[in-house]
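hey can u check if this looks right to u? its 363 residues, i copy pasted from the old doc so theres a chance i mangled smth
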Amino acid sequence: MSFTIAELADALGLRAEGDLSVTISAVAEPAQAGAGDLALAMKPDFAAQLSDGQAVAAMMWADADWASYGLRAALLAPRPRYAMSGLSAMMDSGPGYPTGIHHSAIIHREADLAENVSVGPLTVIEAGAKIGAGSVIGPSCYIGTSATLGANAILHTGVRLMHRVAIGDRFIAHPSAVVGADGFSFVTPEPSGAEHVRETLGDAGEAKAQSYARIHSLGAVTIGDDVELGANACIDRGTVRDTQIGNGCKFDNLAQIGHNVVIGNDCLICAQVGIAGSSRIGNNVVLGGQTGVSDNIFIGDNVITGGATKVLSNVPAGRVMLGYPAMKMDTQLDIYKQLRRLPRVIADVASLKKAVSKTDPSD
């Protein structure tokens, strides 16, 4: 797989300068780039490393003086990192899953596979499942009874789509992701200590040993188009209504989405985020890594949380949040600054107390 600089520029809508016939077969960081690689010198700090490699062409920022780096050609991008999305798609040879239906796959006779669907070894597809045209199901996957998967999806090895989940087009799920496991819903015969704590914010009440009864999940999961699910990420099915994920959402590894959660469009859910049951997330929300969202709360459109933020109450649209408990990021950072000054303040107070105690009362 190789492209000329002219072909790359045309496909990506970028300006190209220099010898446009230079052929590229891979991309590399500037210091490791060989003669056939496109060096990703996307800012001056990276470009300074070009002399350590052998690249003759690079992708650079829009007004870069590419010739001064001894290059023969350059792709000039107003937003190089965005250009990387298209470039990486062109250069990605994929996981290498074979086409067609592997002989060891178990596909129920009542499953409905559209044209050009590929199914890997040891995959199981149950009755009533519907798979859209051009989808690729990797090895050791499971697609449950009456589940629906749209066109041009990719399920990597070990993905599980449980019964009755409905997923749109161009879905990508990375290894061992699970959609549609039962929600974590248990109840005791009488109010438990955890319930008392929730009501009183501290008092567990009279301790009483009780066993937990399971509330079955009768709903499913509905996912829109262009959603990507990271490795070992989980989206639980709803208790009665479906858990819902909008179009264009991207989930990192180990994200956990609880039962009945509703997430809007184009949200970015980073690694180890946990969203508890029945919470609602707006559109274009970014939840930084290890963000925790309590149950039954609402997060408005365009909210951003920093890493390890714990959201315990509703967040209005457009807020940037940080900390535990979550508060506006600028407020939280100011508190951090004050905490750093605290030892000095304590020392100053101690010094003042000592000075006052030595003062002669008769003076």
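The helical segments are 5-12, 44-47, 80-91, 193-200, 329-357.
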